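Homework help board

Subject: predicted structure for assignment chain

Our instructor gave us this sequence and asked us to write out the predicted structure in token form, then describe one feature. I got the tokens but I'm not sure how to describe them. Can anyone check?
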Amino acid sequence: MKAYIFPGQGAQFVGMGKDLYESNEEAKKIFDHANEILGFNITEIMFNGTDEDLKQTKVTQPAIFIHSVILAETTPNFNPDMVAGHSLGEFSALVANGVLAFDDALKLVYQRALAMQEACEVNPSTMAAILGLEDSKVEEICESVENEIVVAANYNCPGQLVISGSNKGIEIACEKMKEAGAKRALPLPVGGAFHSPLMEPAREKLQKAIEATTFNKPHCPIYQNVSTTAVTDVEKIKENLIAQLTAPVKWTQSVQNMVKDGATEFIESGPGKVLQGLVKKIHREAEVSSI
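My token output:
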């Protein structure tokens, strides 16, 4: 069975999508349409901007979404048996399985990006990658940090967990992780504490936007970050999408469940190859490739 997977923030690079724009007429139309929806020339930033321009959350998120979806939509015989997306990638996955229309999803992604950027400005916060510690140990250390918010945010693959929280909390937690034997405890160059309670203001804004958007019945199950199991119920999909901003991304568990449900081939649709690497670490026998 084929599982299509869609990357999240961090997969971007300058020049992403340019070949597609220049070589595929259908792709060009969708890229141009995306510029109209957003009201600014995002393709110019994607193709010719600087790393700094592209790194702004309000640019990064729609850019990765647009690239990921156009790759899927211009692939002949695109017919997934199941889909999943890492954080932001969940919106790309929901277009790929027919739940959201491209226009609606792009508007939601842009609103999400703006709301997250705003939440970051209100609560200066960050994230850090912890390598080489058991998940349970990482969770235990997060809970032990007093008077600060620190949580496990991204379960990327065994031995690689990202934590999220206040600047001070992350600093304390990183020290404790190293003392506990972590190979690395590395602060990440991100704008804030994504997938933590500090994103609550963004979650509230996004909830209103999601509730005002039409969701259709999916063509195939989606394995969402919050629930990790196959979801086809539209109301449940909405609930999980709203909860996602303040809840952890359980990527390891989602991939394990997809394998359990028959996925043998994982195809990444979007910039970079980050998810293929993670899938291989979670399930060595999986076939991985990209569109």
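Reply (TA_rk): Your tokens look well-formed. For the description, you could write something like this. The longest strand covers residues 150-157. That's the kind of observation they're looking for.
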